[in-house]
């Protein structure tokens, strides 16, 4: 047994796409990691490779219930992120965002430790300012189908800043823009996974609406690096701070890129645009550049290639449809 104690991080939602990469990074940085997840959209297989690591612990836990553990820092990532998934049980999505934030903040308060919130570009809704800076208040439909997520995340931000103002907690709020990479769930409905899986299977790629809506896609390793940098800032750095890739593409351009990279001959089809789907989204990352000396490094082609390799392997092993386990 080693005679020192490592800094211990709690990652809620640590068995999900981003959370599992964050667990890897923190363990690599020499921390001990407690991962708490109810496996709603995450899966044990995302952290299976950490099984047997003495510094890693996996806890099945729903963040809408209190959690009493002893840690030195908290990364609050639990929440379904794909529009398809967060609309499956919208009330549970709001509870996860809001009650999950209250419990994580209560834990942070009892322990006196810093807490980072995985917020989202969705707090800007269907933005009317472009690109989006952190001082833009957003344009969200509070009664639409995306509101369970958007308003849940907005309320979580409110809670973070009220705990800061009233209790003096050390908070860090990251507004994460579309991020992609290995361990995205192949069937969770997000555009990068949908397109790559379809292209690899020779199935049609479906553009919702005209495909002219834009997104900016950040590779997961870059995003996780920004998250860790933010957590390591002094107490007065609270955010909110945009983390994402400022290169903007239309969804149609993404489809064409995926077809080219995979050499697929899949056709492109069109379907109705889902309700409240934002027309344009692109982060202004000046604040992250100035405060964290951070910007994404991975070009879209490189990141898509790495992601396609992951899905290719998954499909070959025939495990694309399985969930937790
Ligand atoms: P994901 O769905 O892969 O991961 C979310 C994880 O949270 C899953 O493991 C899921 O099982 C877990 N979870 C959900 N509800 C829970 C609950 N009640 N209790 C415990 N665990 C629960 O999604 P992701 O892309 O990894 O997103 C992680 C976080 O980052 C989310 O908070 C999301 O809002 C935020 N985010 C992600 C993106 C992105 O592009 N990936 C963009 C903006 C914000
Ligand atoms: N909480 C938790 N773990 C802790 C401390 C608190 O899960 O270690 C939860 C607790 O259930 C409470 C919530 O966090 O409902 C908010 O805690 P806080 O102390 O801010 O509020 P209060 O308990 O006074 O309502
Ligand atoms: N989209 C699409 N085809 C798909 C999945 C998504 O055209 O198979 C579009 C979707 O309408 C949105 C964009 O791609 O405009 C990004 O969707 P995603 O669900 O990945 O995330 P969002 O940024 O909307 O939260």
Structural class comes to alpha/beta
Q: State the helix count.
A: 9
Heteromolecules bound: nicotinamide-adenine-dinucleotide, uridine-5'-diphosphate
Spatial order of the strands in the main sheet? Answer: 3-2-1-4-5-6-11
| Percentage of residues assigned to helices | 25-40%
Largest sheet entry? 7 strands, parallel
Backbone CA Rg: 19 Å
H-E order: EHEEEHHEHEEHEEEHEEHEHH
* Unreliable runs: none
Total DSSP E strands: 13
β-strand amount: 15-25%
Shape assignment: globular
Mean pLDDT value: 96
- The termini sit apart by 30 Å
What is the oligomer described by this structure?
Answer: single chain
Q: Can you walk through the features of this model?
A:
Helices cover 36% and strands 16% of the residues. It is built from nine helices and 13 strands. The radius of gyration is 19 Å and the shape is globular. The two termini are 30 Å apart. Helix 1 (17-28) packs across helix 6 (220-231). It binds nicotinamide-adenine-dinucleotide and uridine-5'-diphosphate (UDP) (2 copies). One uridine-5'-diphosphate binds next to helix 5 and strand 8. Nicotinamide-adenine-dinucleotide (NAD) binds at residues 12-13, 15-19, 37-42, 62-64, 77-81, 96, 100, 118, 120, 176, 178-179.
């Amino acid at each position: 047994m080693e005679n020192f104690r490592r800094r211990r991080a709690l990652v809620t939602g640590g068995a999900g796409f981003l959370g599992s990469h964050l667990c890897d990074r923190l363990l690599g940085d020499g921390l001990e990691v407690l991962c708490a997840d109810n496996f709603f959209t995450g899966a044990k297989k995302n952290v299976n490779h950490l099984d047997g690591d003495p510094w890693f612990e996996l806890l099945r836990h729903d963040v809408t219930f209190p959690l009493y553990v002893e840690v030195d820092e908290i990364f609050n990532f639990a929440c379904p992120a794909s529009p398809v998934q967060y609309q499956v049980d919208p009330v549970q999505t709001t509870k996860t965002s809001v009650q999950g934030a209250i419990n994580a903040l209560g834990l942070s308060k009892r322990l006196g430790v810093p807490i980072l919130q995985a917020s989202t570009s969705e707090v800007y809704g269907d933005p009317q300012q472009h690109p989006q800076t952190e001082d833009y208040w957003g344009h969200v439909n509070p009664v639409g189908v995306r509101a369970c997520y958007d308003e849940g995340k907005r309320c979580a931000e409110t809670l973070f800043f009220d705990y800061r103002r009233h209790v003096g907690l050390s908070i860090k709020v990251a507004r994460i823009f579309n991020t992609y990479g290995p361990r995205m769930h192949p069937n969770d409905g997000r555009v990068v996974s949908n397109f790559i899986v379809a292209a690899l299977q020779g199935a049609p790629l479906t553009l919702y609406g005209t495909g002219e809506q834009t997104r900016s896609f950040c590779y997961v390793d870059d995003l996780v690096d920004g998250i860790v940098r933010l957590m390591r800032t002094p107490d007065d750095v609270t955010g909110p701070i945009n983390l994402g890739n400022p290169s903007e593409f239309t969804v149609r351009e993404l489809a064409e890129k995926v077809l080219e990279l995979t050499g697929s001959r899949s056709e492109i089809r069109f379907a109705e645009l889902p309700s409240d789907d934002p027309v344009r989204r692109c982060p202004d990352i000046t604040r992250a550049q100035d405060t964290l000396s951070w910007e994404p490094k991975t070009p879209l082609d490189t990141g898509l290639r790495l992601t396609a390799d992951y899905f290719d392997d998954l499909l070959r092993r025939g495990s694309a449809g399985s969930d937790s386990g």
